[in-house]
C-alpha cells in the first residue's frame, strides 16, 4: 500500500522538475543579463520582483482554471497532451539550435512584466506544463510547483550577475542545451502518453 504523503512528495518533485526545466531561468541567464545590463541595482530588483509576481499570478490562473478551459473549448487531456508535447518538442529544438529560447534584446525599455515575465519565463511551454501538471497530479501539486519554481527563479534573478560570472557565457549555453534535451524527452513522453490514451478509448 502506497503512502499518500510519499506519493504527494514524489509527484510534487516531478512537477517542479518539469516546470523548472521549461521556465529555464539558468539557461536564460545571458538574456537576463543583456536586458538589465545598463540598469541600476534598484531598477533590477524592481524588474525581477515584477517578473516573478507576474509569473506566479499567470501560472496560478492556469493551475486553477485549467479544467474549466478544457471544458469551455471541448478539449480532452489526451489531445492536449499530444499538442503540448509537440509544442515542447519545437521549443527544445529551438533551444538546441540557438542556445536559447529567446533572442537577446540589446536595449530593452520594458520592465518586469514584458518581456521577462511574458514570454521569457511564462511562455506557451510553461503554461502547457502547468496545465498538464494539474491534470496529472491535481491542483495542490500544480500550485505548489508554481510557487517553488518561481521562488527559485526569483533567487536566480536576484543574484543573476554573480551566477553569470561563475557559469560564464559558455556554461550558461551548455546548461540551456542540456535542459533542452530533457525537454525533448518530456515532450516525446507527453506525445506517446496522449496517443496511447486516445487509442485505448477508440
Question: Helices, strands, pairings?
Answer:
Elements: H1 4-23, H2 29-35, H3 41-73, H4 77-98, H5 113-121, H6 124-137, H7 139-158, H8 160-201
Helix pairs in contact: 1-6, 1-7, 2-8, 3-5, 3-6, 3-7, 4-6, 4-8, 6-7
Report on the structure:
With 202 residues, this protein is an all-alpha fold. It has one domain. Helix content is 83%, strand content 0%. It starts with a helix and ends with a helix. Mean pLDDT is 79; it is low at 103-109.
**Main beta sheet, described?**
none
Q: What is the number of beta strands? A: 0
Structural class: mainly alpha
Q: What oligomeric state do the depicted chains represent? A: single chain
Provide mean pLDDT, rounded. Answer: 79
Percentage of residues in DSSP E strands? under 5%
How many domains, as an integer? Answer: 1
Order of helices and strands: HHHHHHHH
Which percent range fits the helix content? over 70%
- Poorly predicted runs are 103-109
Tally the helices: what do you get? Answer: 8
N- to C-terminal distance: 32 Å
Shape descriptor reads globular
**If you compute it from the alpha carbons, what radius of gyration comes out, rounded to the nearest whole angstrom?**
17 Å
Amino acid at each position: 500500500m502506497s503512502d499518500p504523503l510519499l506519493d504527494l512528495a514524489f509527484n510534487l518533485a516531478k512537477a517542479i522538475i518539469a516546470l523548472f526545466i521549461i521556465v529555464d531561468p539558468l539557461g536564460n541567464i545571458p538574456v537576463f543579463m543583456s536586458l538589465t545590463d545598463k540598469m541600476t541595482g534598484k531598477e533590477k530588483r524592481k524588474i525581477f520582483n515584477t517578473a516573478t509576481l507576474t509569473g506566479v499570478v499567470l501560472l496560478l490562473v492556469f493551475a486553477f482554471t485549467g479544467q474549466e478551459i478544457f471544458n469551455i473549448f471541448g478539449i480532452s487531456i489526451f489531445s492536449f497532451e499530444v499538442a503540448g508535447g509537440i509544442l515542447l518538442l519545437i521549443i527544445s529544438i529551438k533551444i538546441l539550435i540557438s542556445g536559447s529560447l529567446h533572442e537577446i534584446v540589446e536595449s530593452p525599455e520594458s520592465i518586469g512584466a514584458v518581456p521577462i515575465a511574458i514570454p521569457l519565463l511564462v511562455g506557451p511551454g510553461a503554461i502547457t506544463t502547468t496545465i498538464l501538471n494539474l491534470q496529472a497530479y491535481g491542483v495542490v501539486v500544480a500550485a505548489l510547483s508554481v510557487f517553488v519554481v518561481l521562488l527559485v527563479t526569483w533567487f536566480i534573478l536576484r543574484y543573476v550577475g554573480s551566477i553569470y560570472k561563475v557559469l560564464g557565457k559558455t556554461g550558461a549555453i551548455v546548461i540551456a542545451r542540456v535542459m533542452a534535451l530533457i525537454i525533448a524527452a518530456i515532450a516525446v513522453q507527453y506525445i506517446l502518453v496522449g496517443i496511447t490514451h486516445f487509442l485505448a478509448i477508440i
